[in-house]
Design brief:
The protein is α/β, with parallel strands linked by helices. It has 12 helices and 21 strands. It folds into 3 domains: 45 residues, no CATH class; 189 residues, Rossmann fold; 174 residues, 3-Layer(aba) Sandwich (Dimethylsulfoxide Reductase, domain 2). A hairpin with a 6-residue loop joins strand 20 and strand 21. The chain is globular, with a radius of gyration of 23 Å. 49% of the residues are buried. It binds iron/sulfur cluster (SF4). The site of iron/sulfur cluster has 14 residues, from helix 1.
Length: 428
Amino acid sequence: MNNSTLPQAFQSITCPACGLLCDDIHLARDTTDNLAVTQNGCQKSITFFGRPALSSSAKINGKPASLDEAITRAAQLLSASKQPLFAGLGTDVNGMRSVMRLADKSGAVLDHMNSNGFMRNIQVIQNSGWQVTTLTEVRNRVDLLVIIGSDVVSILPRFFERVVWNKESMFGQDTGKREVVYLGGRDLDTNPGISPDGRKPQVLPCDSAHLPEVVATLRALVSGKKLYATEVAGITISDLQNLAERLAKAQYSVVAWAPPALNFAHAELTVQNITELVKTLNKTTRSSGLPLGGSDGDMSANQVCTWISGYPLRTSYARTYPEHDPYHFSTERLLNSGEADTLLWVSSFNPERTPPATKIPTIVLGHSAMTFEQVPEVFIPIATPGVDYSGIMFRMDNVVSLPVEQLRTNDLPTLSAVMSAIEEACTC
Ligand code: SF4
């Protein structure tokens, strides 16, 4: 019997299931290596840690194969490929380092499964820069939180518990007096924005498709422009004027948005209106933006890609040197145009994030519980960071990296081990 088959209780464990990386999870491990959250979890973390310890074998065209055979076949596919695409990229820092090495060797394009959302942010950073904050700053300083187009909790379930209605703050602020405003979106779950003493948040609803004009109007009002319209997308100008005045009076406002929720054409311009609005507020008071996201290791993948290649994701090594293009190197475009001829898909956290349907040969390095509608040429089940092995991950605010711990042992290989073996066997 190895140690992993002994029941054990864990405390202060970091949860990698969303970008908050809550580090206060209590867990219990049973004699069959299964885990259960016992304290401080949310439903997302309960599902994540509760997935049973499966020991599935590699497969080639749906038939069981040894790990060596699957690695050899993956290397053959990549060696024969003229334009490989490495996508998904749901992994930790070390996993992404190994992805970068093989991408460099094979001339692959790199894109994350969440890129459609966070490219909206990247384009704004590249174009005009921004002023954003960290979760720690929010936890300790925010007095007015404006959330645009999202309820937050559907992507970051414990956001309010951890950083808004936290009982203690570093500078003696009465956190229960914080004010919350939801702007835009319909059918949002705004209950988590109710303060501990029962104060309801202000909700200014509109269809998400109208957020561009609503946010542009708020920016104009914050800049002191006079408007002759009386309403925009069903929200009265007086309500928006009132919000602009509250932002100007706040000591430390935070304006948050979730890029995946801004799902309309040229949403980067709406993100830019938010970040420019924040810049304007900082002429007279203090304000910061807060982009919300960070699932499936997207922040970790993007950080590693940036510091190794000099560019964020949607970067290609096809010409032997790194080139970045948020449009040309999107997974969707490369698959639809037929430019990519082999897809290598990585998803080690979530078995439900399977590769997009495609006719090109597909190699999947994925969660052991993954099942497929379209059987890939090669499937290699890999270990999950923060459950099956220890690693490092970046939190959603991009400036904090946290260790995630091994909680059980099994025979699943890490992504790094598989990628290194493929790299060695590759003749590309
Ligand atoms: S909020 Fe996110 S990081 Fe925190 S416990 Fe839930 S899934 Fe895990």
